[in-house]
Amino acid sequence: MVDIAPGVEVLLATDRSNPTLRMAEPLLLLRSLERIGTTEALRLVPAVFRLDGEPWRMEGRRVTIRLGDRVAAAAIRARSDDDNPEGRTWARWTTDRLDLDNPGALAQRLGGDQLADVLLAYATTHTLSAIPVVASFVDADQRRLRDAAREALRDFRQNGIWVARETFETRLGEEPDLAWGWERTLDELYERLDAARAAHLLTALADATSALEGGRGDEARTLLDGALARSPELATTEAATLYARIADLEVDPDARDATLRRAIAIAPDAPTTGAWRGRLVFDDAQRSLAGGVLDAEAFARAATLAPACTDCVAMQGALEAQAAAVEVDRTVPLAIASALFLALGLLLVTWSSTSRTPMPSRAATPLVPADDTLS
Prior knowledge:
By secondary structure, the chain is mainly alpha-helical.
């Protein structure tokens, strides 16, 4: 059991009166939401303050102090909740504490999913000062952040048209048609940004292929890594195949395996994924062999998964030949021993039959009369 609020469990063991329970339940709920820590969980924190109001104000401030920017999205949303005055009080104090009225500074402190949640919160509360910050992420490399920024900019609707036009010109190098409304402007902006992103990846794939054909594996890897960092959702089987080709040029088994795992992660269902997995199995078996453990089953599996891998097939052939040689070594001594045993048996039979002395005949034995006496 996890004691999420130290002392409460001990108290409840001796006191379960209504006043105690009315204080323990909200406290345990707050601590649980803090432990979960996701934006969805923290958005419920202001709802707890609504239960008893003022007695929880100081506790709410301690929550903000403990979690810091992690409560930013929840506080931004709570500022506009007309049905929860205590939640708004907490949100105002948190806004001052975390400087939430400065979207630019907050965006610099946050990253990834937290920033995406904050952008959506600003849009939900129609914080107009956040529009330029939101627009700056419509072409972000991270997919969720980019999608959140685009959705947030749409939520501002006509209020964001001037920023949308400015972003169009800045990002694409041309002015949008002023006859377009905010929806058409955003549609054109997003479509052209995505087209440019896809073209960049295709160019990178072509350049990486050219580098591989020239035997420049490191250059090919750099091109692919950069392209997929900018557009991870555009990873394709073609990109995975290029990573596998880069792995073929690796001398270090660890580096080769890391590259193959990248290829498998990009295209786990590609037709050649089995062969890539076979190579990983082979390298693992080689490491075991270097440590003094022969895993014949692993080598056999590698040869089955990757029949085009010359090392895998050669090792399996060598193991099969060795197994056959061992079987012969065991069979030959057994045959020789059997032949010797048979020969020895025949010899004994022959010797026994030739050396046996015949029993004397009763007729040839002189009988001594019963009444004869010795003189």
